Structure formats: C-alpha cells, structure tokens
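Morning!

This is the sequence you dropped in the shared folder:
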Amino acid sequence: MKGSTLLQVLTLIVCAGLLYNGYKSEKEFELLHMENQMLWEKLDSLQSIPSATPAKSSTASKGTSAKSSASSLLDEIFSDLQKDYQDSKKESQKRAAATKIVVESSYRIEDRYVSYRVHEPEIMPTEPGVVIIDIDVNYAGNVKKTTVNSASTINDESILDACRKAALQTDFNYDSDKGYQTTQKGTITYTFKKK
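The structure's back. Tokens below.
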C-alpha cells in the first residue's frame, strides 16, 4: 500500500513538473513571438526609411534588465541589418550602372585561334574604356601568364583583375609545333562600350 501511494505521489510530482514546464515554455514562446513581431516591424521601418538609424533604448527599469540587454542586442542586430541593406543597395546601384556597358573582346596571337570563346570579365566598369591584356600561351593552348598592357584606358584595379582572370580562362588551339617549355605571346583586348 505504501509503495502504491509513493508511486502516486511521484506521478503527481512529475505531472506537476511537466505542467509547470509547459506553462513556462508557453510564456517563453509568447515572449519570443512578441520579439519576432517587433523585429519584423523594425525591419519594415528600415526598408521604408533606409537612412534612419535605429534608436537605442536608454531607459530601463531594474526589473527589466534582461529585457534591456535583449533590446540592446536587437538594436545592434538592426544596425548591422541596416548596414547590410545600405551595402546591398550600393552594390545593386553599381550593377545597374554596369548593365549600361557592354564588352566586346578580340585577340591577337599569330597562327592561333580561340577554342571556344574569349571569356568575358565578371565585373563591368561604369564608364567606357579599353583593357588590353598581354598573354603567354603554351603549346596546349592554355594562357599561362597575364599582364595589363600600358595602353589600357581603365585604371580600376577590380576591373583589371577581372579581365586578367577572364583571359586566364580563355583557351586557344593546341599547337604541337611549339615546344613544351616555350610560350607564345599575344593580346586579348576588352573594349567596354555604352549600349
């Protein structure tokens, strides 16, 4: 009899603990839900007014110290989100400006032709200009070395680097008459024009 009573008491304690834990979890869930709604409202306000900076909470009562640290964390997160938003906006403006420029490529190397196509650079400048890349091509048709020719009219290092990478991806025909250790010199010219 004592064993079954003890078992009933333990069962009641476990049930009470589970009920309390469920109640506590429900309250935490409600708090997370409210914070989530606040996050979405702040995000919407950031998108509608991108130049506004989120205000940091300066008043906090003693009983809400955990809440104030959470809100300061949220403010920090939103300032980071705003910075990312501004950066992505600038990047999209840069891409929009770059879409007004097209590239035409040509190459000059004696007795060789491009196997597939001259690769285009991944980044476009915002203004028209010319980038000339001096290349060294081995017997297999691989571009082994690239340098920017001094006759290039674009000085933006990111554009020049993109042109060098594109030139390295360009393949020429195989030439068995060339020695294994020798390379052949040539140029690839990228002409950036307005549409």
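Headline: Residues 2-48 form the longest helix (47 residues).

More detail when I'm at my desk.
O.
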